[in-house]
Structure formats: structure tokens, C-alpha cells
TrEMBL record:
Source organism of the structure: Massilia violaceinigra
Domain FAD-binding: 6-342
Gene3D superfamilies in alphabetical order: 3.30.70.2450, 3.40.30.120, FAD/NAD(P)-binding domain
Name under which the protein is recorded: FAD-dependent monooxygenase
Lineage, top ranks: Bacteria, Pseudomonadati, Pseudomonadota, Betaproteobacteria, Burkholderiales
One term of GO molecular function: monooxygenase activity
Length: 494
């Protein structure tokens, strides 16, 4: 097997596929190796968060996902009765999209195909290595051994990541101690309403319609909370647990998928070792609560993709960004650590709260998040809307005054009004994966970015005048986060 790839991605899950698209968009040659010969039919994830939709909108493909899913304006934290309200979030997508992971992967693989990504199914990576010039993998496809070389290797190969293990990167954390049950099943007499979520001293239950008579039933059963994750789950076992928690099994039958999942929580000690990177479940695993693993992983992929492309295509060095690839771990490891924390907290509230004290804690928190500020803080955390990177990546020239309040903030898809009266969308200017300098006030300031890697637009942002007071220009990264903002006073003085 040969390849002229500049990047090898191990794993064609949602994270590997999105990363490959982001690289191909910038003209980088990428080969994705996937051991499965066919896409997975079952869907672990059902929730796509608003920030992931924004990311897809940044590249002009969000509509494909919206067309296949159903927007839901609220979500949950630890299955508490008070829902998280996304509708107040400042975004074109103030909701979660109900979309099975199998559809997400199907749409990503189709997009990868359009961009010319070389996805090789049935190819299992068995060993990896690197030196100062590049990285390589060896493996087997159709019984035939192969070796592929490239400039960089990314492990998007899931929780048991071979790439992570071979690179010797520690996966620190907590072992599985509690488990829950999952069944995609038919229900003869489903509970009324769109979805059911309940919690009591016997445990917790969620019933979510998947289409037709198919439902996902998730049970946290106090009586079976210590059963190991590997123990097989039977339909009878799921039905009995459902009855214990809800007093009814809703006529459960015809299982399509029965499984257990655990509260195992681990975070890779580093996301990079030389020319090898980790993204998605290869870097972080946790209790699937609040619909986050795939979303955070896809956001890892976006963060890494444009940076690798910037380094390979020369934009980074031409723009004076010395350590762009190091910034991947600097920015995303703290996001993984926050994910670790919030899912562990949810695990305590969902799987360790059956006694009166635990029930009282749940009731207290549920009351507290009725307050709009706390509710919004959690909604921003889980959705990814709240992520703000700590530092500017671009060197700021001496004498340039920066408005620090903008550094690292994500931008929603603002409408921009141009001097000729036309209106365009901010995200449209980022669709090619390049930087954007948005001049909102005076002209005159020269961007330090390499011309091939930046578009410059002069426009007003209707409705945002107060927010942008004192700002002359926003230097926006390809992922829609502000790198830094130039103060008006500085421009006036140049
Ligand atoms: C019950 C449940 C519900 C969930 N719900 C949500 C949700 O609503 N929202 C959400 O955001 N997340 C959710 N998640 C988490 C989500 O499913 C994962 O975070 C997501 O699949 C991670 O994507 P990935 O691409 O990193 O890894 P994976 O999806 O695991 O993909 C890794 C790929 O790498 C391939 N691979 C592995 N090893 C090799 C090798 N050696 N060679 C070649 N290929 C290899 C695998 O075959 C696989 O296709 C849920 C998880 C569970 C268990």
C-alpha cells in the first residue's frame, strides 16, 4: 500500500473524518486509515451541540446536518429535572441538534469524499513511529502488511488508542466503578410526551424516541450500579431495571442494541509527542452525560486541522507564529480537563446519589439552576459556546494596543454591512479556512499575516456597536475565535 500523504489519521470516527476534511480544505494530502470495513450502524451519540454546528457553518456545511436532525432548545446536566436552556445563547444555533452519530459520520465521510480525502477502510494500524523528519505507521489491510510515511500522524483512534499507547502517552484517571444500561428497543406503550427523564431513589431513566417505534432507553439502576461494564445485558435485565426505576417497562421488546457504559474517566497527559497528536476519545474518555465526547473531539479536530495546515503550507512561519502546533495542546488540554471535571461531577449526581443525602443534593442543585445565571453558565460549558482561549497566537507588533477583553473569544456568525450597502455573513469569509481581519473602524493598520493566509474585510457589525466600542479591527482565527483585537486609539496614532 502506498500513499503520498502529508498527514496520516488513524481512525475514521467523527473526529478523524472532520480532521481530514479540515486538512483537505487547505489542500493538505491526508490518508485516513480505518480498521472497520463498513461504517458503524449503531449510534452512540445523539446530541450535536451548537458550537459544533457553528464549526460546521464556518466551513459552509452546517445545513447538511441541520437538514437531517431535529433542534432541541434545552439539554440536561446530570439528568436534573431543571433543563439547561440553550435558547439564550448568542448563536445562530441556540439549541442542540438531535442527530444520530451514524448520520453525522455518514455526512462527514461524504464531505471527505468530495474534498478528495483518501479514506482506506479495512486498514488496521498495528505500530507507529517517528523521527525528526516524519512519522509512520505499519499495519495490515486485506491480509497484506503495509507501511505508510507522512510528515505527521494523528491518533483519532478512540478510547483504546493504539497511537496513544505506542507513543507512551499516559492516560491518567479513574477506573470504571459504576455502570448504566442502554437499549435501542421497540416500545409497545411508550411514555407520553417527546422524551422522558426521571430520577428517584431507585435510580434514573431516560427514554428518547429514535424514530418510528424505536426508542433509546437508558437506565441507571441503583440495584445494579456495580455490575461490570463487560457483563452482557439482556432484554429481560433492561426491562426489569426499567420497572424498578419507573414502575413500568413500556412494553419493551425487539432490542437492536443492548450495552452498558461506565463512569471511567481519563485524560491523556499530553496531546502531542513530537510529530504525533491525539484527538477525540484517544485523548479523553468519561461518562457520556450531557452529550459531549464527540462534540469536544470534533472541536479538537478543528483546532488541530487548521494549525497543521498552516504549518505545512507555510502560512504560520510566514506570519511569525513560532509554536502554532504547541498551541493545540495548550488550548485543548484545559478543555479536556474541564470535560473530565464536569462529567465526573455528573457521575456523582447520577450514579452515587440514591441515598437521602444524594437525593437532597440533586434537588438543591436542580433548584439552583433555575436561576438564569447558573443555568446559562452550565449551558455555555456543555455546548462549547463558553470556550475562550487564553492567549493570542500572533505576535503583536510593538506599540500596538490590544483590547484584552476580546482575546480568545469565539465569534457568532454576525451579519456584516459593507460600505456599498451589501450584507454578508462573518462565517462566509472564514469558509476557506483562512484568517480574517475584520476592520470595524478606521483603516490604516497592516495585518502581520501572510497574504495567502488572510482575507481582509472592512465592514460594520449592525447591533454590536456598543460591544465593539474602542475596537478598530478584530484578527479572527480560521476557527472563528478572535486572536486579538486592535484598539481604535492605536490605529488613529499610526
Ligand atoms: C452511550 C453513549 C452515548 C453517547 N452520546 C454522546 C452524545 O450524545 N454526544 C457526544 O458528543 N458524544 C456522545 N458519546 C461519545 C461519542 O460517541 C464519542 O466521544 C465519539 O465517538 C468519539 O469519536 P472519535 O472519532 O474520537 O472515536 P471513535 O468514534 O471511537 O472512532 C475511532 C475510530 O478509530 C478506529 N480505530 C481504532 N483503532 C484503530 C486502528 N488500530 N487502526 C485503524 N482504525 C482504528 C475505530 O474502528 C473507530 O472507527 C456517547 C458515548 C456513549 C458510549
Amino acid at each position: 500500500m502506498t500513499s503520498n500523504a502529508e498527514i496520516i489519521v488513524s481512525g475514521a470516527g467523527p473526529v478523524g473524518l472532520l480532521l481530514a476534511c479540515e486538512l483537505a480544505l487547505a489542500g493538505v494530502r491526508v490518508t485516513v486509515l480505518e480498521r472497520r470495513t463498513e461504517p458503524v450502524a449503531q449510534s452512540r451519540a445523539l446530541t450535536m451541540h451548537g458550537r459544533t454546528l457553528e464549526m460546521l457553518a464556518l466551513r459552509g456545511v452546517a445545513d447538511r446536518f441541520l437538514a437531517r436532525g431535529m433542534p432541541i432548545p434545552s439539554g440536561h446536566f446530570a439528568g436534573l429535572p431543571t433543563r439547561l436552556d440553550f435558547s439564550a445563547c448568542d448563536s445562530t444555533y441556540p439549541f442542540t441538534l438531535f442527530l444520530p452519530q451514524s448520520v453525522t459520520e455518514q455526512l462527514l465521510e461524504a464531505w471527505a469524499g468530495e474534498l478528495g480525502v483518501d479514506v482506506r477502510r479495512g486498514a488496521t494500524v498495528e505500530s507507529t513511529g517517528q523521527d525528526q523528519d516524519g512519522a509512520w505507521v505499519t499495519g495490515t489491510r486485506d491480509g497484506t502488511p503495509f507501511r505508510l510515511d507522512a510528515r505527521y500522524l494523528v491518533g483519532a483512534d478512540g478510547a483504546r488508542s493504539l497511537v496513544r499507547r505506542q507513543a507512551g502517552i499516559a492516560f491518567d484517571g479513574l477506573p470504571p466503578t459504576k455502570t448504566a444500561m442502554l437499549g435501542d428497543v421497540l416500545l409497545r406503550s411508550p411514555p407520553p410526551g417527546r422524551a422522558l427523564s426521571l430520577g428517584n431513589p431507585a435510580g434514573g431513566l431516560m427514554v428518547v424516541p429514535l424514530g418510528g417505534e424505536l426508542y433509546r432507553v437508558i437506565v441507571v439502576d441503583a440495584q445494579e450500579i456495580d455490575v461490570p461494564v463487560e457483563a452482557p445485558l439482556t432484554l429481560e435485565g433492561l426491562a426489569a431495571a426499567t420497572r424498578r426505576v419507573a414502575g413500568d417497562d413500556y412494553g419493551i421488546h425487539a432490542p437492536q442494541w443492548l450495552s452498558r457504559f461506565s463512569n471511567q474517566t481519563c485524560l491523556a497527559q499530553s496531546y502531542r509527542q513530537g510529530r504525533i497528536f491525539l484527538a477525540g476519545d484517544a485523548a479523553h474518555i468519561h461518562l457520556p452525560a450531557g452529550g459531549q465526547g464527540m462534540n469536544v473531539g470534533m472541536q479538537d479536530a478543528m483546532n488541530l486541522g487548521w494549525k497543521l495546515a498552516g504549518v505545512l503550507r507555510g502560512g504560520a512561519s510566514a506570519s511569525g507564529i513560532a509554536s502554532l502546533l504547541d498551541s493545540y495542546e495548550a488550548e485543548r488540554h484545559p478543555v479536556g480537563a474541564a470535560l473530565y471535571r464536569n462529567t465526573l461531577a455528573q457521575s456523582a449526581l447520577m450514579m452515587n446519589s440514591f441515598d437521602p443525602a444524594g437525593q437532597a443534593l440533586r434537588a438543591t442543585l436542580s433548584e439552583l439552576i433555575k436561576g438564569p445565571e447558573l443555568n446559562a453558565a452550565l449551558a455555555h460549558d456543555l455546548s462549547g459556546f463558553g470556550i475562550r482561549y487564553a492567549a493570542a497566537l500572533l505576535p503583536v507588533a510593538q506599540g500596538v494596543e490590544v483590547c484584552a477583553r476580546w482575546t480568545g473569544r469565539r465569534l457568532p456568525d454576525w451579519p456584516l454591512r459593507h460600505a456599498d450597502g451589501t450584507v454578508s455573513s462573518l462565517y462566509r469569509h472564514l469558509a476557506g479556512g483562512r484568517w480574517l481581519v475584520l476592520r470595524v473602524a478606521q483603516d490604516g493598520w497592516q495585518s502581520p499575516l501572510d497574504d495567502d493566509w488572510v482575507e481582509t474585510v472592512t465592514a460594520a457589525v449592525p447591533g454590536r456597536e456598543a460591544e465593539l466600542d474602542g475596537v478598530a479591527a478584530l484578527v479572527v482565527r480560521p476557527d472563528g475565535h478572535v486572536d486579538h483585537a486592535i484598539a481604535s486609539a492605536m490605529v488613529a496614532n499610526t
